Amino acid sequence: MLYKRGQISYEYVMLVGVILVVMIPLFYVSFSKLSDTVRVNQAEEAVSVLAKTADTVYSLGPGSKSYVWITVPSGAVSTSISNNELLLRLSIFGSISDFHANTKANISGSFPSSQGSYKMSATMLDNGIVVIGLVNDTTPPVISNINPVTGSIVRNSTFTLSANTNKNANCRYSTSSGFSFGSGTLFTTTSGITHSSILTLGNGVYTYYIKCNDTYGNINNNSNQGTTSFTVNLDLTNPVVSNTAVDKNRTIAGNPICVNATATDNQAINTVWVLVTSPLTSPFQQVQNYTMSDTASCAGTSGDNVYGASILMQSPGIWYINTTFANDSADNVGFQSPYPNIKINVSSNSSTGPGQGLTYVIIDKGWYYKTPDNNNLTANDSQSSLSLLTVDLTDDDKNTPPSTNKLKYSNVKNVFEGFIIQLNKTQSDFDYVSIRLKAVDSDILPYNLTIYAYQANNNSLLLTNTTSFQITKVFQAGVDRGSNEVMVTATVKAGSSPFIKLRIVPDTTMNNKVAHISEADFGVA
């Protein structure tokens, strides 16, 4: 009988233990959730009560003041007051949550982020701002937005020194580090949180220190005073930049060129840079700045005001050294004007000729011409029959000149037919120029041609310095494009028209022989 009673007692204890094992975690979880809910309510109420109090004193007008108690919950990470918003950031439910409250009033100040209950005040200032802060606050004002900012250059002898505080305060400034508040100069203008004074200074480097005293008598000490260091420089003279030059106007892609320029000023030169336009296209940057040095290998002797830079010519084409800029220690900027726009002709390799070292560009203008009867080659453009064929001569896959537009010479009435092509560049823009034609048929191969340039009137042919040219290939689908090319550099250089303009003329040996072309372009370098 005793054994049975003991067994029942043991089983009862075990049952109670099992119940406790199950219930205690459930109780803990429920308690934690209840605690988190309480903290959320405290956070929401803290910002809400402060916002309502701020709006209350705002509605009552300047000079109004009100007090309120708030509770900051445990887990508060930070608090802030800015413009029309109060924010309390709380670590809750395993993450950070923000609790906001907005006000009609423009507010400033601060409220605690440490757990506890606090008596807060809200005061309406004359400037329309409501300042929120602790009653019996022991925290000195936070000084911010000091102007001139540290490192800046002041260009006027008279300017404003200003600063902001996060709460209502009186502020003083001094050029002495660690000055006592009473020995500083009081800012002449204050709204309670914005403070300013007009200063008049000469050239020099200045450091100003700022301390503030709030309505509770809290004053910044040396470790949290405001500080700014700036330079007054009344120099308005720009550096003089001249003599931008290069060591060569022609090179091969992948090689550098040396650029130098002279920069002088009535004080120290700070930076010199050269502006360069390259033939690179998107996504690469076409216009770039390159910093120049007084000690670079391109710069001459250190201290001689000659600056230099070695610039790599990354791709073939025409590069331009536009101009050189310089600024001084007062940040005045000068540049060489007018821009020198020095042209650098960059080829793809050392060999320049048909198919090598040339960049091929489509024509800007193209015409078919036919000279009047018995006028021979002396017939100028205005006397000939011209048909504009620019599009037809730039893309044979889409457009080709009509079959009536051809290369032909007829000794009957001495008539010449052919094509005129133009590139809207001057004769000095390139060191090498070629013509490349695609022939689609020809009565005879080779088909002999002569290339003529134009005189200054851009209408009459220059009958000297011509180039002989032969069509030797005709386009065959799946074989080649029938390209025929010849260098015409000497003819182009001899021309004196405003543009690179050439007339393609069949030789008299081609009497009544016809050739048709479908594309014409220039090779340049």
Describe it for me?
This protein is mainly beta. The chain folds into 4 domains: 32-134, no CATH class; 143-232, Immunoglobulin-like (Sandwich), CATH 2.60.40; 243-347, Immunoglobulin-like (Sandwich); 359-524, Jelly Rolls. It contains 2 helices and 36 strands. The chain has helices at 2-60, 489-494; strands at 65-72, 76-82, 85-92, 95-102, 106-109, 116-124, 129-134, 143-147, 153-154, 158-165, 169-174, 185-186, 189-190, 194-200, 204-214, 226-232, 240-246, 250-252, 256-264, 269-277, 287-292, 306-312, 317-328, 333-335, 342-347, 359-362, 365-370, 385-388, 408-410, 415-423, 433-442, 447-454, 461-471, 483-487, 500-506, 515-524. The strands form 8 sheets. Strands 27, 28, 29, 30, 32, 33 and 35 form a 7-stranded antiparallel β-sheet that branches. Strands 18, 20, 21, 23, 24 and 25 form a 6-stranded mixed β-sheet that branches. A 5-stranded mixed β-sheet has the order 9-16-15-11-12, with no helix packed on it. A hairpin with a 4-residue loop joins strand 6 (116-124) and strand 7. The chain starts with a helix and ends with a strand.
SSE map:
Elements: H1 2-60, E1 65-72, E2 76-82, E3 85-92, E4 95-102, E5 106-109, E6 116-124, E7 129-134, E8 143-147, E9 153-154, E10 158-165, E11 169-174, E12 185-186, E13 189-190, E14 194-200, E15 204-214, E16 226-232, E17 240-246, E18 250-252, E19 256-264, E20 269-277, E21 287-292, E22 306-312, E23 317-328, E24 333-335, E25 342-347, E26 359-362, E27 365-370, E28 385-388, E29 408-410, E30 415-423, E31 433-442, E32 447-454, E33 461-471, E34 483-487, H2 489-494, E35 500-506, E36 515-524
Parallel strand pairs: 5-7, 9-16, 18-25
Antiparallel strand pairs: 1-6, 2-3, 3-4, 6-7, 8-10, 10-14, 11-12, 11-15, 13-14, 15-16, 17-19, 19-22, 20-21, 20-23, 23-24, 23-25, 26-36, 27-28, 27-30, 29-30, 30-35, 31-34, 31-36, 32-33, 32-35
